[in-house]
Amino acid sequence: MSTKIKTQHSSITELEVDAIVSPGNQKLLAGGGVCGEIFKKAGISDMRKACRELGFCGVGQAVITPGFSLPAKFIIHTVGPQWTAKNKEELLENSYRNCLLKAESNNFKSIAFPVISAGSHGFPPEIAIKTA
Asked: Residue 2 has what pLDDT?
């Protein structure tokens, strides 16, 4: 089996894939940026309920919810590290790895990632992309 990687500049909320990745916060609350947009497009009420049931996601970890009103079937939520965190590159690698493990364990064939931690978490985009 071959792996195909494609880069694209578009809204992650419009992609028809098995799962999209939402870079969020540990309490799984609707934030700003990509996370906030995903919550809005998926359906804020459904997302809040699903995330409230999960309760928490640690930095570098990943949890999954349905995609609700999105074209993507599922949302994999991960919490990337802050730029100021110790072991920040390792934690960011863990975010990507754990999202891929969730996708693999659910037999997903396609997954879309934003650049994790490059927004409000302060990672310079070029370093976040290289880490990915």
From this structure: 65
CA distance 30 to 101: 24
| CB neighbours of residue 89 within 10 Å | 14
Q: Contacts by 24-30 with C-beta closer than 8 Å and gap 24+?
A: 24/57, 24/77, 24/78, 24/79, 25/79, 26/56, 26/57, 26/58, 26/59, 26/79, 27/55, 27/56, 28/52, 28/54, 28/55, 28/56, 28/57, 28/63, 28/77
CB-CB contact of 72 with 37 (8 Å) = no
* pTM as predicted: 0.94
Q: Answer left, alpha or beta for residue 29, where phi above 0 means left and psi between -120 and 50 means alpha.
A: beta
pLDDT in tens, 1-57: 567 777 777 899 999 999 999 999 999 999 889 999 999 999 999 999 999 999 999
Q: How far does the chain reach from its first CA to its final CA, in angstroms?
A: 21
Backbone angles phi, psi at 40, to 5 degrees: -60, -50
pLDDT at 1: 53
User: What six digits make up the tokens of 129?
Assistant: 């992309």
